[in-house]
Amino acid sequence: MHITLKVWRQTGPDATGRFETYEAPDISPEMSFLEMLDLVNERLIEAGREPIEFDSDCREGICGTCGLMINGQAHGPQRATATCQLHMREFSDGEHITVEPWRAAAFPIVKDLVVNRAALDRIVEAGGFITARVGSAPDANLIPVPKESADAAMDAAACIGCGACVAACPNSAAQLFTAAKVQHLNLLPQGQAQRWSRTQEMVETMELFFGSCTNYGECHEACPKEISLDFIAMMNRDYVKAMLTNRQRDGQKKVG
Amino acid sequence: MTLTLDAKIPSGPLTDKWNNHRFELKLVNPNNKRKFKIIVVGSGLAGASAAASLAELGYEVEVFTFHDSPRRAHSIAAQGGINAAKNYQNDGDSVFRLFYDTVKGGDFRSREANVYRLAELSGDIIDQATAQGVPFAREYGGLLANRSFGGAQVSRTFYARGQTGQQLLLGAYQSLANQIREGSVTLYNKMEMLELVVEDGRTVGIICRDLISGEISAHAAHAVVLATGGYGNVYYLSTNAMNSNATAIWRAHRKGAAFANPCYTQIHPTCIPASDEFQSKLTLMSESLRNDGRIWVPKAYDDNRPPGEIPEAERDYYLERKYPAFGNLVPRDVASRNAKLVVDEGRGVGPLKNGVYLDFADAITRDGRDTIEAKYGNLFDMYQRITAEDPYDLPMRIYPATHYTMGGLWVDYDLMSTIPGLFVLGEANFSDHGANRLGASALMQGLADGYFVIPYTIGGYLSTFLGQPPLPTEHEAFENARRAVEERTRTFLSTKGTRSVDYYHKELGKLVWDNIGMARNRTGLEKAIAEIPALREEFHSNVRVLGSGDSLNSSLEKAGRVADFFELAELMARDALHREESCGGHFREEHQTAEGEARRDDENFSYVAAWEWKGPDTPQELVKEPLTFEHVELTQRSYK
């Protein structure tokens, strides 16, 4: 296959970026998209030009490190597929492909196609956990968890934190990511003690960094794990309840 | 001076050792804990669980990861599950049976006391993970489900679909996030440890490079915990993540930490075969697939018919034929070696004849497509995405690939290396799996080390340094180490050779795979020992690293890692050559039974081979830690 690539190059966070065009002849359809970029980089190095920086690690769609806008689509054209699992057989010979980094104010560009997604970690640090000191856990079978709850929690917990939902959203909102994290824990009996504080703190931290959700649903379309929009609805409902519950709890706190 | 290895195995009966030891370890009182600073390098299962647990105890913890987020460590890719001797299935499991299976599975090359402790702690891990909200698979009654796994005849594996590693890592990461929020852990992301700092015979800190700004900085602490994973990427192609590397442990080795059993590497039997020369990594298909899939190749050589046209009578279900008791569930090393045998014979399948079939047709007929989809749906999807073949219709093609390294830095029972104050956890150490790791045991070991071992043992070490602050980073020990790192970076950038880092990594990988892979022999190992240094010389004089050191530069990062792989590969070859026996993942063709099974030599090789660094121009020196077995009878492993 012969591919023509238009790639975003930017030397640093504050530098001005630009598109550069690279011809990529002799591409095998069996290659993954990132292996195609590896080959382009090998050829760049051979020609004495700096290779394109892009993020990738596990290359099996689970670590969430990779993520490219391919022809304007987060993770490219294939459904339920992270960039590293996309293969060149999904493209046709002679195709022109535009490759950009995730585009969102909350994800500043580090270099070329690499962005900084630390804002997602800040949301988790705000409350995306169940406080369970090591050593204090009861026997795992003490609390039965209905299979349906465990399965639903697992559906949410499958999120790989890649940020495609944010990149795909016209508002750069992080509702799908946050909802997945919130509902994974809120759906489980073990997560009930911190349910309302978790919900409020995670949602409000999200809003410090990201845009607002207006229900486009692009996030779900781009999600490599097909996380359901239902979780956003559940989170919104929990958030309303959390506001009331937390206010009530604040009122019940003894002063002095 | 030659090192002496003292494993510090506690005295007393096997079943009481850990309990007694915990009582004997000195404690640090809660007010004093905050005066101790601990550096944890790596944020996978072992690192994140250690950091969170140590911070909960009150220590001042700093975590360093080269990832952008701790959640991306490669533990996340573990699929199948985690073992625990809960006996929830009432099928005869016990702590002793898990201990026994693990020692036997490791081909009697691990320490009894360590393995027993691991088995003892296994149940606590499940309790802890469940309390954190890890969504393990459940039965309809709401209790936990289990499945069986290679190398075991009981169902003791807990799992979260095919993403158990992901869910356990997220559990540990969330606990870490909780501690970051509390201010008890400081996280340094995108920071790669490039040197260990040792002064006056003990560990005092590390030198790191900020991968984004290129800044090189020194960090001091009372103790350093390395949880930086294995070295499978020495083969170039492996199931490891692209960035997994041996640099942290290798830099520590060069500073005096003995490296144990480097030749014990595990080749996982069920990976997707390579499709072309540009393959950048291999993808594993969970071993749990062997519960329902049947492995076969055509009986005839060079049979080019599609699998569906090969009648039952012309298929060779070679594992079921050779090992009737375990069948497709034999341990990994046995399954891998047999796949290599049939492919080398010319009975391989697929366009490159480099695989064997893993066939679900019988399971789908027996249980229905829905049941199989519920169990393995995500794995089948992954396979289809990579190969464009539908495993519900066509059998999967699989072939072994490097997956895990049992070798690693030598540690004593307290998980401390031969450098005082340097602790090593998880895959980075050598401790529990002997010559072969059983499936679903890596997650168990990483979390046992992090949640339940290091929080106790590190206190015993730290208690002797009460009132002493960490060494100031202005000290010349830090300055010298920092200068060495800067010099190394400058050298790579100024070599200006003609070939890329990846070119050399691939060349090295081929050499290692061909000669120190699934089957080894004297000729091949001697060839590797002769050729690796020459290739390394060429790498250092001819590598081309473009760009600068003061911004993100992945070629520069890789150059340092590949340089360390070169040195490690040579040590692997020497270790494999000296071990004149076959055991677990180390199969020497000269040492096999008439049926082609591994033949151990317990009389001469029942020891841990620890290698001590003697300087860049002198080969490492072998130091032996004898292994004694009091509770398990040494037998030839038989899965027939």
List keywords for this structure.
heterodimer; A: 256 residues; alpha+beta; Ubiquitin-like (UB roll); Fumarate Reductase Iron-sulfur Protein, Chain B, domain 2; 2 domains; five-stranded mixed β-sheet; two-stranded antiparallel sheet; 8 helices; B: 640 residues; Flavocytochrome C3, Chain A, domain 1; Methane Monooxygenase Hydroxylase, Chain G, domain 1; five-stranded parallel β-sheet
Detailed description of the structure:
- The complex is a heterodimer of chains A (256) and B (640).
- Chain A has helices spanning 33-46, 118-125, 147-157, 164-168, 175-186, 195-209, 218-222, 230-252, and strands at 3-9, 18-24, 69-70, 73-74, 96-100, 109-111, 114-115.
- With 256 residues, chain A is α+β, with helices and mostly antiparallel strands.
- Chain A has 2 domains: 3-111, Beta-grasp domain (Ubiquitin-like (UB roll), Roll), CATH 3.10.20; 117-252, Orthogonal Bundle (Fumarate Reductase Iron-sulfur Protein, Chain B, domain 2), CATH 1.10.1060.
- In chain A, strand 3 (69-70) and strand 4 form a beta hairpin.
- The N and C termini of chain A lie far apart (74 Å).
- Chain B has 640 residues and is an alpha+beta fold.
- Among the domains of chain B are: 268-402, Succinate dehydrogenase/fumarate reductase flavoprotein, catalytic domain (Flavocytochrome C3, Chain A, domain 1, Alpha-Beta Complex), CATH 3.90.700; 476-601, Up-down Bundle (Methane Monooxygenase Hydroxylase, Chain G, domain 1), CATH 1.20.58.100.
- A 5-stranded parallel β-sheet of chain B has the order 5-2-1-9-17.
- In chain B, helix 5 packs across helix 12.
- In chain B, 59% of the residues are buried.
- Classes of the chains: A alpha+beta (256), B alpha+beta (640).
